[in-house]
Design a protein that fits this description.
globular, single chain, disordered N terminus, mainly alpha, membrane, POT_fam, two-stranded antiparallel ribbon, disordered C terminus, three-stranded antiparallel sheet, transmembrane transporter activity, 18 helices, transmembrane helix, Growth Hormone, Chain: A, 663 residues
């Protein structure tokens, strides 16, 4: 970790609102603390979603993987929407606050879906006040809740959380108990109210029967006997997932932008980003291990409850720092200016290109801007766009300002649009870089469910936690790369690798990860056939899940190369007006990749028999070999795009410059 938290510079004393100093390192614990809580909450339910759908909603394994891909994809697409909203309409603080409240609702709704099977319906986290007569309880309930004797005293009064099937009958005068709310008990309590004067106030008791139908009955061994999920169950499930996912979109990357905005010094911004991503990865690892372990080995209800608590704590921590934050007003969407370039150039399509030099182009109200890209005149590439900046009488007011914004643009806006066009091919290669990884993530969890996950006498690796190996290797690799690999590279070549070279190395490692995945799956299927497990749904293949680690480690190391390379490249090469949005482009790529991964799996299911619901009877290794071919073809496409690309910011073309090198 570079930098420290002991900086005491002017950042701690800049920007005031109503006479109070805002921003600086005093905001750091609030932002990173909130990030930790919100990341724990999001990772706790998202990482184990496939297992949850299979075990609790009787969703077929491949369908569960598809749903997980869609949800994960949206969780990476939604931050882009959150960033645009924060930049264009509201400030980051408002977006984060509202989104954290929305995300809090998701785990709560998921908790409500976890009523036990059969006739019992638990209502977690709601308290019920009950006052019952002793004689009535024992005479009406069958079986009696106190089978070993009566409780002395005329009445008992208790506040009890519904959820645990225990009743302490040891106290002669008072009783603290927890009751299973069954339809039988509800019926009895209704009759007691009329006959024996029972007094009770029950929150949401009227919805007990609804809660009892929030998920289907568990499957028996015969899959054809599984109860299908009803429309109501689907509606509540997807509502919970949507709320939680929207919350992720409005917090994660928006919080990174807000944190960086607390500093003016770029070195402090770089230090903040280092700690930000360290906190993000650490919280992700904890959620993928500890919370998933609770969900798999204790209860889903407790696991989702922990997610809700973590979300609430994160939200409270963030709001507690409000008095110290520096608030930046939204400046309007930069995408509007880019859209105007397209419209203006189209409306001026019949205009002859200017031959009069810079005087025929519009540079802004103050003349030629200092941060103009390239020369004083528009660049010759994509020349048809230059018409948008050509001056036409009537489009500019007498004071020099734009009179018709959808007919007249500045040269800077035109050059910004050209910059995006130039980088678009490189950006597109990273989409197909992420798609095989997205497919691998889902299929690896399905593989883990069919393998021996025991690594100690009394400890099994939760299937949803298997992907934590990727995050651990990604978190550790940058230190090794920065301390050892890049200095060695510089000694051998005389220069640091460029961002494009870093991304290229990530391509190679991803391809190797897919090759290892195919080889491991071939071995797993061979063992399954040897033990005649192909036709047994849910059969565990006697092969350790540790065999999945090498492929995940390779993918994690590959991510340590290409993910920072992408973020740095986009931050450096994107127009200044799009710097905030540029940091979310990597998230956009991941989101699109997961949706494409869903499409790939759908296509494979339609045209092949490689992915049946019982993967022990499939050809999953063929899917991985196909991903190897896709990766090789995409790498070739990337090499062409990278060789043709010319850096717009030559100063920052290597890894020891730009924002990520300010240590």
């Amino acid at each position: 970790m570079d930098g420290s938290l002991s900086h005491h510079d002017h950042d701690s004393h800049t920007s005031s609102d109503f006479g109070r100093r805002r921003g600086g390192w005093i905001t750091f614990p609030f932002i990173t603390g909130a990030l930790a809580g919100l990341t724990l909450a999001a990772g706790g339910w998202l990482s184990n979603l496939i297992v949850y759908l299979i075990q609790e909603f009787n969703v077929k394994s491949i369908d569960a993987a598809q749903i997980s891909n869609v949800v994960t994809g949206f969780s990476f697409l939604s931050p882009v929407i959150g960033a645009i909203i924060a930049d264009s309409f509201f400030d980051s603080f408002s977006v984060i606050s509202i989104s954290s409240c929305i995300s809090l609702l998701g785990p709560d709704v998921l908790v409500d879906t976890l009523a036990p099977q059969g006739r019992m319906a638990l209502i977690p986290f709601y308290h019920i006040s009950v006052r019952l007569r002793r004689s009535t309880i024992l005479s009406t309930l069958d079986p009696p809740l106190c089978p070993h004797g009566f409780v002395s005293g005329n009445s008992i009064t208790s506040n009890f959380p519904v959820g645990h099937p225990s009743w302490d009958c040891s106290s002669p005068n008072s009783l603290n108990f927890e009751v299973l709310m069954t339809p039988n008990l509800v019926e009895h309590m209704s009759s007691l109210e009329q006959n024996d004067g029972i007094e009770y106030g029950i929150v949401l008791l009227a919805l007990t029967e609804t809660f009892n139908t929030l998920k289907p009955q568990p499957c028996v061994k015969e899959p054809e006997l599984c109860q299908p999920t009803s429309k109501l169950q689907h509606a509540i499930l997807y509502t919970a997932i949507a709320l939680a996912t929207i919350g992720v979109g409005g917090t994660r990357y928006t919080m990174a932008t807000m944190g960086a905005n607390q500093f003016e010094n770029r070195k402090n911004q770089a230090t903040f980003f280092n700690w930000f991503f360290f906190t993000l990865y650490t919280a992700t690892v904890v959620s993928f291990t500890a919370i998933v372990y609770v969900e798999d080995n204790v209860s889903w209800r407790l696991g989702f409850g922990l997610c809700a608590i973590a979300n609430l704590i994160g939200m409270v921590i963030f709001l507690c720092g409000a008095r110290f934050y520096r608030f930046d007003k939204p400046q309007g969407s930069p995408f509007v200016g880019l859209a105007r370039v397209v419209v203006a150039s189209a409306r001026k399509r019949n205009l002859q290109h200017s031959s009069g030099g810079s005087k025929d182009y519009y540079y802004g109200h103050g003349g030629v801007t200092d941060d103009l890209v390239g020369s004083a005149t528009p660049s010759s590439s994509f020349r048809f766009l230059n018409r948008a900046a050509q001056k036409i009488e009537g489009d500019i007011k007498p004071d020099g300002s734009i009179g018709k914004p959808w007919r007249q643009c500045t040269v800077q806006q035109v050059e910004d649009f050209k910059t995006l066009i130039r980088i678009l091919p490189v950006w597109s290669t990273t989409i197909f870089l992420g798609t095989p990884v997205a497919v691998q993530y889902s299929l690896t969890i399905l593989q883990a469910l069919t393998m021996d996950r025991q690594i100690a006498p009394h400890f099994n690796i939760p299937a949803g936690s298997i992907l934590v190996i990727v995050f651990i290797s990604t978190a550790i690799s940058p230190t090794v790369i920065d301390r050892f690999l890049w200095p060695t590279w510089q000694k051998l070549t005389g220069q640091f690798p460029t961002f494009l070279q870093r991304i290229g190395l990530g391509h190679v490692l991803n391809i190797l990860g897919m090759v290892v995945s195919a080889l491991v799956e071939s071995k797993r299927l061979k063992i399954a056939k040897t033990h005649h497990l192909q036709d047994q749904l849910g059969a565990i293949v006697p092969m350790l899940a540790l065999w999945l680690f090498p492929q995940l480690i390779l993918v994690g190391i590959g991510e340590a190369f290409h993910y920072p390379g992408q973020v740095a490249l986009f931050y450096q090469e994107f127009p200044v007006s799009l710097r905030s949005t540029s940091t979310t482009m990597a998230a956009l790529i991941i989101g699109i990749s997961f949706y494409l991964g869903t499409g790939v799996i759908n296509l494979i299911q339609k045209v092949t028999r490689w992915l049946p619901d019982n993967i022990n009877n499939g050809k999953l290794e063929n899917v991985y070999w196909m991903l190897v071919v896709v990766g090789v073809l995409n790498f070739g496409y990337y090499l062409v795009c990278a060789s043709l690309y010319k850096y717009q910011n030559v100063e920052g073309a290597d890894c020891n410059s730009g924002p990520d090198s300010e240590k």
